[in-house]
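Subject: design request, 297 residues
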């Protein structure tokens, strides 16, 4: 697989590359493909796009042998082949947690639709008390299923009550708090709002019902950041590449600059000549972690 970049992006904005983002249908917020090799190639493509205004880049391709800390990509730059390693930064098993939440949200939407069919599209936001763990992961299967059924019963009843209010005023949202109930140990509230015409929810749904299970959020502290950066350093340092690209889905992060600063400190003495940090969502954010004299970003 090889991408010829030509002169694309010569007049692009320094440090940031924007993507068109359609509001006309549901779309996962990831820019980078889930398949590991396709994802590495996509990251390399956007990296080449970012540095193209400052270097003579002819293209990028996947490296056939990336074993034993070998290069994931080969960058064709200034008449030579530059080996690049690519690695993803993520916290608290976000990918696994997201897959659980996505499957559960779709199942909830289908089950709610069996009982209630709103005449317009609604977004139902479920707020767990622990937003950075898989939903109800501490419970055994039977206990989890019983609690989920009680949650669905509450949502059904509240949705029925909310529909007339949302029909009368589409701009409001209704909110139900689980104060003092059995569910309050695990959930804080349910919010319901009408999805405006021309907008489409970026969460799973069925028919007119879309579920935003807030466990999508990523939670971590400074200790988690330090441990994660050390783990990446130990795994990638002293490899066979000149460049390391560390990337993340932007919506999984908060305090990006703190992470970037941590990377600058941790990788200052790394074996790589250059290290970069890139985050992706509707656009790309780009940090030079280990600078060289030849790039001006």
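Subject: RE: design request

Done. Sequence follows.
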């Amino acid at each position: 697989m090889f991408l010829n970049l030509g002169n694309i992006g010569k007049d692009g904005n320094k440090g940031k590359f924007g993507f068109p983002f359609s509001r006309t249908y549901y779309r996962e917020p990831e820019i980078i493909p889930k398949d590991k090799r396709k994802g590495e190639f996509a990251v390399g493509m956007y990296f080449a796009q970012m540095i193209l205004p400052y270097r003579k880049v002819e293209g990028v391709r996947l490296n056939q042998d990336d074993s034993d800390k070998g290069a994931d990509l080969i960058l064709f730059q200034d008449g030579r082949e530059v080996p690049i390693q690519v690695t993803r930064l993520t916290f608290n098993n976000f990918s696994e947690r997201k897959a659980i939440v996505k499957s559960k949200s779709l199942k909830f939407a289908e089950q709610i639709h069996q009982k209630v069919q709103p005449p317009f599209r609604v977004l139902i936001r479920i707020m767990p008390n622990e937003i950075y763990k898989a939903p109800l992961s501490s419970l055994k299967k039977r206990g989890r299923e019983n609690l989920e059924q009680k949650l669905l019963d509450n949502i059904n009843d509240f949705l029925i009550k909310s529909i007339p209010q949302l029909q009368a005023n589409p701009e409001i949202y209704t909110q139900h708090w689980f104060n003092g109930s059995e569910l309050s140990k695990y959930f804080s509230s349910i919010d319901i709002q009408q999805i405006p015409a021309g907008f489409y929810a970026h969460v799973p749904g069925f028919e007119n019902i879309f579920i935003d299970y807030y466990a999508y959020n990523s939670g971590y502290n400074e200790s988690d950041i330090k441990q994660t950066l050390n783990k990446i350093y130990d795994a990638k340092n002293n490899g066979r590449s000149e460049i390391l690209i560390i990337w993340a889905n932007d919506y999984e992060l908060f305090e990006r600059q703190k992470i970037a600063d941590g990377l600058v400190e941790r990788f200052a003495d790394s074996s790589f000549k250059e290290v970069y940090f890139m985050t992706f969502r509707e656009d790309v954010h780009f940090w030079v972690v280990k600078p060289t004299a030849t790039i001006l970003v």
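Confidence is low (pLDDT under 50) at residues 1-24, 293-297.
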